[in-house]
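Late entry, S-adenosylmethionine complex.
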Amino acid sequence: MTAIDDSTVRSPDALRADMVRALRAEDGVRTEPVAAAFSTVPRHRFAPDASPEVAYSLHSIVPVKKDEHGSDVSVMSTAHLQAVMLEQADIEPGMHVLEIGSGGVNAAYLQELVGTAGEVTTVDIDRDVLARARRCLDDVGYTQVKTVLADGEHGVPEGAPYHRIIVTAAAWDIPPSWISGLTEKGRIVVPLTVHGTTRSIAFDRDGNRLISHSYRLANFVPMQGEGAADERKVMLREGVVLRTDDARVPLAPQALNAALDGSRLERWSGAAYDLPDELDLFLTLNLSSPARLHAAPGIVDSGLVEASALRGVPALVGRDSIAYRTRRENAGTGGFESGVIAHGPQAEALADQYTDLLRRWAQNHRRRGAATLRYLPGPAPTPLPEAAVPRRHGIVTATWA
Ligand SMILES: C[S@@+](CC[C@H](N)C(=O)[O-])C[C@H]1O[C@@H](n2cnc3c(N)ncnc32)[C@H](O)[C@@H]1O
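Prediction complete; structure with ligand written out below:
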């Protein structure tokens, strides 16, 4: 009989220690309390159907529940993203914390951070997910965490006000209950989707408004229930899709598809291109009629649409014309220059507006974290302020340093 060499099989404790080291190295864990929480909670026991290696890997999600089309409706978020959000939340012992979207493990981290004097409530809209989270929490010994079955849109008023609210599904808006559910100096960490890109934003309460303290790119399953996103999506042709979550944007697929077949205007900005996520935040909030253009690899290979659209690119959309950004290498000097491709009868005007924004960003705001985001509740003012996007319960707006 051949002996099995198990010298490379690592114990969950060893995998956990490796994970914490790697989380520090990759700028996930920054502070000792968060490191201690990740070192203590036996993460693999909240993912009993996954291997410990997957449970403790930094960037793997663990699927929990899928819908009838096979899309994830609940997952255990990646360790890295959880660490980033817990650092953004800046949780102290004794705090009362609400988590919207349950899985168990993040609530256990929260309980470690608030300690025995604090309180953690976690709410989920899905009965199966919540029951699973409750089972895991009890099995591992986090019996004090409160679990609530409800649509998180309305918060959990019984436990309010909370020092911290952590939302763990991609939100499209910030309902009034989340702001009023915070203490006066409370903080909400929420993955907010603006024009197709989700960022985990730490917002501090400022009266009845919110002002951002930090933001990081994030990926989340979408919010369900009353707060679900209001998004329109049209296919211009096989492999070319436009999406927008702004009701003011016209989406006329036939005219835009015809524009793509027409002549193509190429305009170079003379400005540097880098930090695409920061650039895209500036663009999507400042373009007068923004959408996100996606193109499949075959379409890009055919030369019809630039490679910038492979993962979605901010587009400026008119009734019959469209413009989006691209880039080219700077000859000799290294780096890239940004530019615009435009199609349709209004191509010149759209390219002018787009190029002007590319230059403004590169000259004035080209660095990480330059934006401050605000959420202002209430009806959207007319005219809408610069760099603002209307939502059901208020507006998201930004300024750049
Ligand atoms: C990424 S999972 C949560 C991960 C979890 N926090 C963890 O510990 O890994 C997102 C969860 O949000 C829940 N969800 C979606 N919409 C919701 C809503 N309106 N109210 C409460 N929960 C919601 C989903 O059912 C899903 O379980």
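Residues 232-364 form one domain. Will revisit in the morning.
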